[in-house]
Design goal:
The protein is of the alpha/beta class. It has 2 domains: 204 residues, FAD/NAD(P)-binding domain; 204 residues, Polyamine Oxidase, Chain A, domain 2 (Alpha-Beta Complex), CATH 3.90.660. It has 16 helices and 16 strands. It is globular, with a radius of gyration of 21 Å. It starts with a strand and ends with a helix. The structure holds flavin-adenine dinucleotide (FAD). Flavin-adenine dinucleotide binds next to α1, α2 and β11. The site of flavin-adenine dinucleotide has 42 residues, from α1, α2 and β11.
């Protein structure tokens, strides 16, 4: 290749695109190389089941996209993205017929717990975090750093002390099952055991985001998010090279900085010979989290949830009580596929008519399984949905399933089906394979890691890409 660029980016997921946009905005030339025929990574949409049904291949619901300080600086609406916010962000039904519902308002949410004490405890827990959210979000969605203004320090410290706790401890503030199950389901997004430190952070961030910005979906599918990013990159003069799987850094055109939207194991594969042995060993030791098993379904009607209020909820958590969810996640960490898995369900077509033909609907669902497990979870997931939506099975027109192997074949970053680009436990935070001072820089002054393996971690929000590009601009592109 005879071209020269200031920067090249390997991988066109949300973070590769965010990195490329940040470089291009700084007036530097950039080319992005993507293995698939289109960019998108974990934010793509496709007709996976039947003609006329549009499914989110990976990400579906975007509280962190709506909260992203980086996305807020981009003209994404002009580039074709429209967020749709379901009236209720999340519902969590229980077998006794009761349901916890997350509304935008804290009070309306607390009122669904069926306990005055729990309602007050929820207001005490979430109230200050939601009040401080505008100041907190830029620090929460960033590498660990000192707050910019001393006034922010108190709110951040208060949040940090709660977030560091295991979800199992946070739930002791509640007496009733509804609030406890709600917290547990949100914490389980972190793919950790619910008695592990930091699982509180997943619950608090997701619930605070629900109250502050909502849990929106993208009209026309999640692919619209990365399509809008790609249009913005092109408008800034960035080049996208699809259908190019980079197997070694030497095949890239001349550049001053390479930003790699891959996980550590893949960085090792394409550039290990350029990195010192100690760093290469740290990359080799990098730990991946559990895998996921995902279903997309075409339905001949809406999901017949027993609780009619759930027809207003974009996302539904199916797994019963806190204890049941905790035991499902613990089984995964012991290497077993749970018989009654915790299921994350989204019903986008109720709020977005572009997803299915009139009168028909889609369902998006996944559960955790051991990393790399070759197990078919179709029936356990359908059984869990049927448990809270009797008659669901009869509405299924077609099913598309992806286990860990299929997920990794779709996007090589999903190592063993790990959708989080690594195990984001306390060990990851305290001793990252990546250096504390600059988690994006590597010992090679021209190579930067910009994927969801770097802070602030997974989700479609572009913050790792943005911070990695800032690091590259500072260190290699001055
Ligand atoms: C099933 C599932 C459900 C999810 N649900 C949600 C959700 O609801 N909300 C949310 O916010 N997040 C969700 N996520 C997580 C989110 O998708 C990821 O955190 C996010 O996409 C990470 O972005 P990234 O740019 O770091 O990596 P990715 O999005 O994985 O992008 C990496 C890109 O690099 C490309 N690539 C890989 N190897 C090479 C190579 N050698 N050469 C060139 N290109 C290469 C890949 O094809 C891919 O396009 C989900 C993920 C999955 C899989």
């Amino acid at each position: 290749m005879s071209e020269r660029y200031d920067a090249v980016v390997v991988g066109g997921g949300p973070n590769g695109l965010a990195a490329a946009i940040t470089i291009a905005r700084a007036g530097r030339s950039v080319a992005l190389f993507e293995a698939a025929s289109t960019v998108g990574g974990g934010a793509r949409s496709a007709a996976l089941t039947l003609p006329g049904f549009l499914h989110d291949v990976c990400s579906a619901v975007h509280p962190l996209g709506a909260a992203s300080p980086f996305f807020a600086t981009l003209p994404l609406e002009r580039r074709g993205l429209r967020w749709i916010e379901p009236p209720i962000a999340l519902g969590h039904p229980l077998d006794d017929g009761s349901v916890a519902l997350v509304h935008r308002e804290i009070d309306a949410t607390a009122a669904t717990f069926g306990s005055r004490a729990d309602a007050a405890a929820y207001r005490r827990l979430l109230g200050p975090i939601v009040r401080d959210w505008p100041a907190l979000a830029p620090d929460v969605l960033a590498p660990i750093r000192l707050p910019h203004r001393p006034a922010e320090a108190l709110g951040l410290a208060r949040f940090g002390l709660l977030a560091a706790q295991p979800a199992s401890r946070l739930t002791r503030r509640f007496e009733g099952q509804r609030a406890r199950a709600l917290l547990g389901g949100c914490a389980a997004h972190g793919s950790l055991q619910l008695d592990a430190a930091l699982t509180g952070a997943f619950a608090l961030v997701l619930l605070a985001a629900a109250h502050a910005v909502g849990w929106p979906i993208a009209e026309g599918g999640s692919g619209r998010i990365t399509e809008a990013l790609a249009v913005e990159l092109a408008a800034l003069g960035g080049k996208i090279v699809p259908d190019h799987r980079v197997t070694h850094a030497s095949e890239l055109p001349a550049h001053r900085a390479a930003l790699v939207d891959l996980t550590p194991r893949q960085l090792l594969a394409i550039a290990g010979d350029r990195l010192p042995g100690s760093y290469a060993s740290a990359l080799r030791r990098y730990r991946y989290g559990p895998g996921s098993f995902k279903l997309d379904l075409a339905l001949d009607g809406p999901i017949p949830c027993r609780n009619p209020e759930l027809a207003e909820a974009g996302t539904v958590h199916l797994g019963g009580t806190f204890e049941e969810i905790a035991s499902s996640e613990a089984a995964v960490h012991r290497g077993r596929a749970p018989e009654r898995p915790f299921v994350l369900l989204a019903q986008q077509s109720l709020f977005d008519a572009t997803r299915a033909p009139t009168g028909r609907h889609t369902a998006w669902a996944y559960c955790h399984v051991p990393n790399g497990a070759a197990v078919d979870m179709t029936e356990p997931i359908v059984r869990q949905i049927e448990r809270f939506a009797p008659g669901f099975r009869d509405r299924i027109l077609a099913v598309h399933a992806m286990g860990p192997a299929e997920l990794e074949a779709h996007d090589a970053n999903l190592v063993g089906g790990d959708i989080g680009a690594g195990l984001h436990d306390l060990g990851h935070v305290l001793a990252p394979a990546l250096s504390w001072r600059d988690p994006y820089a590597t010992p090679d002054p021209r190579i930067f890691l910009c994927s969801a393996s770097t802070p602030p971690g997974p989700g479609v929000h572009g913050m790792p890409g943005y911070f990695a590009a800032r690091s590259a601009l500072r260190r290699a592109l001055r």
